[in-house]
Each structure stands twice: as structure tokens, then as C-alpha cells.
Specification:
Length: 393
């Protein structure tokens, strides 16, 4: 854990006990968490190599407004619109080459190893691995009046004010067929290698890797009145339609085929979709949950189905789901070693307000601002080191 010092790589928080305040927001890399406290400072824990050690920039982390993360690094937007980064230097943790450009930052987005920032004037600044979108020089002249950014594993897509789209980064991750002809794009979503765009008329356009959701031709006539699109990172999309039904496409092993659960979804008013890397979970209007995709990676919730009532929010690691219920308790399922088994901390999971996840661990903010974590300890899931230290002081 780090708040000015990290002598043991995430285990000893005694030196920072008096500095910890109410946790406001959590963000995660693959193996570390970062928490914004009520005073605008940041506390980190988990793998030091994946952003769990912020000691070198701790004195700069003041008045933090927002956090974003690549797989191995964090970036924080401060109140003055500047940015502070830490973690893997080749994965966005070193922003020194563009630091003088990072003024008036409004929004951050991240691929696996690069960051992109929208500035107040609508331009974009990128840094990190150039092959993962960290180099936007070829399209810089087009990046004007940018309203929204989305990212695959190695490419970015920007929605401009006129609803057109500009892409850059890895040609195998969504930058191979940039849809310059697109107009009226309202929202973007992505798998690891493909993009999906919701247009103003509620239809959907997809591009890049066909077997990762980039080919929606088989369900195109069903994609009308689309309200939201969610994705499993490995290769499937699912869309909520205006009538609350769901249409899925992409790799069937990763959630691209929802045929077996359509009778549970149809007419039930799907409110929210969440995904692991291989499965989907849908929250219905009555607060129950329907899952599909890889059974041992979150697609089978039968063992906890009777507990999934009054679900308010879903979060996921790579292979497991966690649901916050109306009473503030939490139900988990999926791979037990990736956060799917919360039995050791279940009695602490009361009054949960928010969940965040690394690749293999969850962290929950409780009503009193304290934090409970579980899952793989090497990925931030060791709650014994942080539970007591996040209590309000």
C-alpha cells in the first residue's frame, strides 16, 4: 500500500494511518488499486509494478478529480486540469514527453498500454506504447472537437462533434478499417479487437475483427432502438434495445450467443449489462440476474441464483462477477480465485456503496468510507492489509 511510502510493496500501511480519509472513488490496473480520498489525495495498494506504488508522485497527488488506468499504470486528473502518472513507464506511467501539453484535461481513456486525454479545446494528447495508441501523430490534424473516446486492447476511437469517428493505434485492434464515412455516432463500445458504434437512429455499426464482434451482419436487422452496448473483452457484444430485450453477437464461447437464456430475458426489461472476459450478466427490472457465456467464468450463476434479488449494481474481474444488493450486501460467483468466492470477507460486506475490480480481485467501498478487498492477493485482493486502514479518521 502506498501513501507517500511503500516499504513492503503493498502490505504495510502503518506509516500512512493518520492520513487516510473517506474513500470517494476506486480505479484499478490488472494488479493494483488506487483510491481517491475525501481530501483529494490518493492511496494505492497491490502489485508495485502495476501501479500499486505511487510514492514517487505522492506529493503531486493533490485535489485529484478522476483516475484512469492501463494494464500497468495509473493517470490522475487534478483540479487544475493537469495530469499525474505512475506505474509501468512503457504502459503510460511516464507522461514526461507530453507533460507540457496536458493542460485543461477533461477526460482520460486507456488501451492496454497507452493513455489518451481530451483537452478543453477538444484536441487529444496521447502517450504510452506507440503501438497501442500512444502515438496519434498520423491523425492529429483530424482530432478536433473530440467529444468521447473509446478503446480496444491497442487502438483508440474518437467521436467528433459532427458524429464522425477517427481511429488510431494497432491495425489489428480496431484501426484496420476506420469508418470515416460514419455520421451521427452517439456512443462507442469495444471488445479487445473490435468496435461497435450506436448511431443516432438507434442502429449499430461494427468493425474490425469479425470473430471478436466486429461482424454484426447476422443480427443487423434486430439492432434497432439500441440503448446500450456492453462487451466481453475477448470477443462478443450485447445490446439492450428500447423494449428491454437483448441482442448478442460475436464469439458464442464468449457470450456472443444468448439463445439459451432469451426466454429469461424477453419482456423482462433488462436494465444493466456487465461482463467478465468471457461471459455476460444482465440485471432485470425486478432486480434479478441472468447470465450466459463461459459457465466457469461467470456465465453460470445457478449456485447463487436464489440470492440474486434486488441487485443494484454489477462489477466484474476477468473471470468473476460481484453484485451489490438493495440491502448493501454482496453476492459473488465465477472463478473463486478471481474474486468469485467472497466467503472470507462476507461478514464485512455490509452497506456497500461501490465496487471496483482488478483482473483477479474486487474492492468494495462501504457506507463509512472503509474498504474491503478480496480475491487474488497478488492482484490487490488482500483485505487484511487495508481493511482497518481505510476506516474514517
Amino acid at each position: 500500500m502506498s501513501h507517500g511510502a511503500n516499504p513492503t510493496g503493498g502490505g504495510d500501511s502503518s506509516e500512512v494511518q493518520d492520513h487516510l480519509k473517506d474513500v470517494q472513488q476506486l480505479q484499478a490496473t490488472l494488479g493494483a488499486f488506487a483510491a481517491i480520498l475525501a481530501d483529494g489525495s490518493v492511496v494505492t495498494w497491490g502489485s508495485p509494478d502495476r501501479g500499486g506504488d505511487s510514492s514517487e508522485v505522492q506529493d503531486q497527488l493533490k485535489d485529484v478529480q478522476q483516475l484512469q488506468a492501463t494494464n500497468f499504470a495509473f493517470a490522475a486528473i487534478l483540479a487544475d486540469g493537469s495530469v499525474v502518472t505512475w506505474g509501468g513507464p512503457y504502459s503510460g506511467g511516464d507522461s514526461s514527453e507530453v507533460q507540457d501539453q496536458l493542460n485543461g484535461v477533461q477526460q482520460l481513456q486507456a488501451t492496454e498500454r497507452a493513455f489518451a486525454a481530451i483537452l478543453a479545446d477538444g484536441s487529444v494528447v496521447t502517450w504510452g506504447d506507440p503501438y497501442s495508441g500512444g502515438d496519434s501523430s498520423e491523425v492529429q490534424g483530424q482530432l478536433k472537437d473530440v467529444r468521447q473516446l473509446q478503446a480496444t486492447l491497442g487502438a483508440f476511437a474518437a467521436i467528433l462533434a459532427d458524429g464522425s469517428v477517427v481511429t488510431w493505434g494497432d491495425p489489428y485492434s480496431g484501426n484496420d478499417s476506420s469508418p470515416h464515412w460514419l455520421k451521427g455516432v452517439q456512443q462507442l463500445q469495444s471488445t479487445r479487437f473490435a468496435f461497435a458504434a450506436i448511431l443516432a437512429d438507434g442502429s449499430v455499426v461494427t468493425w474490425s475483427a469479425p470473430d471478436s464482434g466486429g461482424d454484426s451482419s447476422e443480427v443487423q436487422d434486430q439492432l434497432k432502438g439500441v440503448q446500450q452496448v456492453q462487451a466481453t473483452s475477448c470477443g462478443a457484444f450485447a445490446a439492450i434495445l428500447a423494449d428491454g430485450s437483448v441482442v448478442a453477437w460475436g464469439d458464442p464461447d464468449y457470450g456472443g450467443d444468448s439463445f439459451e437464456v432469451q426466454y429469461q430475458l424477453k419482456g423482462k426489461g433488462v436494465q444493466q449489462l456487465q461482463s467478465t472476459r468471457f461471459a455476460f450478466a444482465a440485471v432485470l427490472a425486478d432486480g434479478s440476474v441472468v447470465t450466459w457465456g463461459s459457465p466457469d467464468r461467470g456465465g453460470d450463476s445457478s449456485e447463487v441464483q436464489d440470492q440474486l434479488k434486488g441487485v443494484q449494481q454489477l462489477q466484474s474481474t476477468m473471470f468473476a462477477f460481484a453484485a451489490i444488493l438493495a440491502d448493501g450486501s454482496v453476492v459473488t460467483w465465477g472463478d473463486r480465485y478471481s474474486g468469485g468466492d467472497s466467503s472470507e470477507v462476507q461478514d464485512q460486506l455490509k452497506g456497500v456503496q461501490q465496487l471496483q475490480a482488478t483482473e483477479r480481485a474486487f474492492a468494495a467501498i462501504l457506507a463509512d468510507g472503509s474498504v474491503v478487498a478480496w480475491g487474488d492477493p497478488d492482484y490487490g485482493g488482500d483485505s487484511s492489509a487495508v481493511a482497518a486502514n481505510f476506516a474514517c479518521v
